[in-house]
């Protein structure tokens, strides 16, 4: 199973990628998380891309393509992968095809924009393992502490109102056209994002079982 998850920031791609990772036993690869780790580790790459993330802009295509190209060579990707947040432009998707980094399906999680803004403002992420929570919709068991690794939860630097607005604009101009790109290849599946995480997970699993059948 090789999948890419499409959807606006805050649609729940990271949360659902974690569910799919467990179900299919294949790795979820989040370019956003790889970038945040590089920034936190202050690597040369991290320093180079920090300004883009802080402004809510996309990181240049060649940089993210190189990241994914290297990551999918790892042994754990042998039976498939879940791409979360990649590709994010038509140019990234075209380069992927040329490099034969293919997907069987592009699964879009469709969530209305007013819900998205609430989700992003209430989102908390683990400063260590990157697990995501929402203060009301998907809270950690102990406030401010990651259920998975016990580290502190924080607000992502790009989950602040001005940057959120800009990211949504970038999504609609540069990433949304990917829906048509995958639809034209017969690979697009759209699932409506539900209020409860588990309801969206159920809808996704059903949609994937339907195409596997
Ligand atoms: P995410 O965690 O997927 O919301 O990504 C956070 C930020 O990382 C985005 O706003 C971009 O600045 C950057 N980013 C993640 N994935 C990509 C990508 N495929 N192409 C360009 N920039 C990306």
Describe this structure as you would to a colleague:
- It contains nine helices and eight strands.
- The strands form two sheets. It has a five-stranded parallel β-sheet with strand order 2-3-1-4-8, with helices on both faces. The protein has a three-stranded antiparallel β-sheet with strand order 6-5-7.
- A hairpin with a 5-residue loop joins β5 and β6 (132-134).
- The two termini are 13 Å apart.
- By secondary structure, it is of the alpha/beta class.
- Bound molecules: adenosine monophosphate (AMP).
- Adenosine monophosphate binds at residues 9, 30-32, 35, 52-53, 56-59, 64, 85-88, 92, 158, 167.
Layout of helices and strands, plus pairs?
Layout: E1 2-6, H1 13-24, E2 28-30, H2 31-40, H3 44-55, H4 61-71, E3 81-84, H5 90-98, E4 105-110, H6 113-121, E5 123-126, E6 132-134, E7 153-154, H7 161-175, H8 178-184, E8 188-192, H9 197-212
Parallel strand pairs: 1-3, 1-4, 2-3, 4-8
Antiparallel strand pairs: 5-6, 5-7
Helix pairs in contact: 1-9, 2-3, 4-5, 6-7
The biggest beta sheet, please? 5 strands, parallel
First and last CA, distance: 13 Å
Question: What is the beta-strand fraction?
Answer: 15-25%
* Radius of gyration using CA atoms only: 16 Å
Secondary-structure element order, N to C: EHEHHHEHEHEEEHHEH
Shape category: globular
Counting DSSP E segments of at least 2 residues, the number of strands comes to: 8
Tally the helices: what do you get?
9
Strand order of the largest sheet: 2-3-1-4-8
Provide the helix percentage.
40-55%
What compounds are bound to the protein?
A: adenosine monophosphate
